[in-house]
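Sample log: UspA domain-containing protein.
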Amino acid sequence: MASNEYGVVLAVGPDGVGAGALGVATSEAARRGTGLELVHVVHSLVAPADAGQIQSIDQAMGRVGRVVLTEAAAKARAVLGDQVPVSTELRYGPVAATLTERAAEADLVVLERRDAGTVERILTMSVSSRVAAHAPAAVVVVPRGWEPAPEELRITVGVDLPEDAWCQVAPAAAYARETGRPLVVLHAVWLAEPYQDLAFMDDGRLRWMRDATDEIQRSLKPCLDAGDTAPRLDVRWQRPSDALVEATGTSSVVVLGRRSPRLLGGAHLGPVTRAVLQHAAGPVMVVDRT
């Protein structure tokens, strides 16, 4: 739970924030009954030797930050009215680390992924990926230009380990219950092409997919609350990153779990999650596994 009255945080960039990310943040703040805080972080990438120049640049960038925060807050208040409070905060420091620090007092952080040139995209995705990996709260990354569908779409949760399905599904199941949306559990099975003929003689591929389905069902059955509708299982033969990116185009949100920091040298996000964050057509929520 948030440690202050502003449980939803929306990161606002130097060129403002798009309607998609703003819509996710305002709807979540209203649904949760918590305040919305818009945060802009000033971080100069160039540090001239002269201290006066540094101060001048910081002041100029701060003015830009205050302008975009004021504009975004006006849009948020127009949507929310008096439902929940809206505030703004201008911070200085490394962008990802500063947003991650702010997330310690929040329930949800909303970030926008902008389409940009190669170098800028690397920098932008570094912020999104680092915050998604390390924030002690759920993080939603929304592609700029995304618009919600007119109808209520499903929530899709990705599962990588069938035998550990409930640890990955539980946060998404709770979110689906709270929002009243149907839940789909997606598990993609894949082997590199050179191995497929050797590994899947006869009906081996279908048997592997069937076994994965049975394992997921066994993991989920004792954990669903009484009265819960069992999620629909979607087990398919496809590269996991491709399957999940495809699902972002037909889901209200795709939910992915952080990995244990004890795995692979402390990596909180695996390569599949990073790929989905970079190429998703719709919102992606990254959460802790239970």
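Observation: The longest strand covers residues 36-42.
Observation: The CA atoms of residues 118 and 162 lie 36 Å apart.
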